[in-house]
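> example.struct
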């Protein structure tokens, strides 16, 4: 006769799971909550249609004082990034590195 074994301990079960499942079960960090907030707000702005894409149009809106926020991507060249930040500082516009 085979005896029924005890159910596995929860920590042993977690060790057997793939790493991507473990990250999904953990609490969200403050940075990821902020990223979710930015993503949802960005989706809302894109849905409204009040945005412009690109370096040249960003400079134009900064010079005209019509921009409210500048999102700079991670792969933006350093010279371009510093120029956008400088124009944003003069226009008193927010800058977010995304």
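> example.seq
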């Amino acid at each position: 006769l085979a005896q029924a074994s005890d159910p596995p301990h929860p920590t042993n079960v977690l060790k057997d799971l793939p790493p991507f499942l473990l990250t999904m079960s953990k609490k969200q960090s403050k940075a990821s909550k902020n990223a979710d907030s930015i993503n949802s707000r960005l989706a809302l702005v894109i849905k409204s249609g009040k945005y412009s894409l690109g370096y040249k149009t960003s400079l134009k809106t900064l010079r005209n004082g019509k921009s409210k926020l500048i999102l700079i991507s991670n792969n933006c060249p350093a010279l371009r990034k510093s120029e956008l930040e400088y124009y944003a500082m003069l226009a008193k516009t927010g800058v977010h590195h995304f």
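> remarks
The two ends are 62 Å apart (CA to CA).
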